[in-house]
Every structure is written in C-alpha cells, then in structure tokens.
TrEMBL record:
Pfam families assigned: Isochorismatase (PF00857)
Name by which UniProt lists this protein: Isochorismatase family protein
SUPFAM superfamilies, alphabetized: Isochorismatase-like hydrolases
Residue ranges occupied by any Isochorismatase-like domain in the UniProt entry: 2-41
Lineage: Bacteria, Pseudomonadati, Bacteroidota, Flavobacteriia, Flavobacteriales
Length: 42
C-alpha cells in the first residue's frame, strides 16, 4: 500500500523505489478522475 497526499502518485512516496525493488516492468493504471490523478501520475 502506498499512501499519497498529492495528485502524482510518485511525488513524496516510495512507489518508484518499491516498483524497482519488486522488478515491476509494467503497470496497468486505472481509476477515477482520469483528467487529474491518472494524468499527473503518467
């Protein structure tokens, strides 16, 4: 679980570090409010 406080899921979180540690190469990104949260993350 990654707790976030900003629109961008990578900002001030350990998400990128966690993905690299787990050797994740692909993500499926989906959710609500695509025009804000998903756009900021991708």
């Amino acid at each position: 679980m990654v707790v976030k406080h900003f629109l961008n899921n990578f900002r001030d979180t350990d998400l990128l570090k966690t993905l690299k540690e787990l050797e994740i190469e692909r993500l499926v990104i989906c959710g609500m409010m695509t025009h804000m949260h998903l756009d900021a993350t991708t």
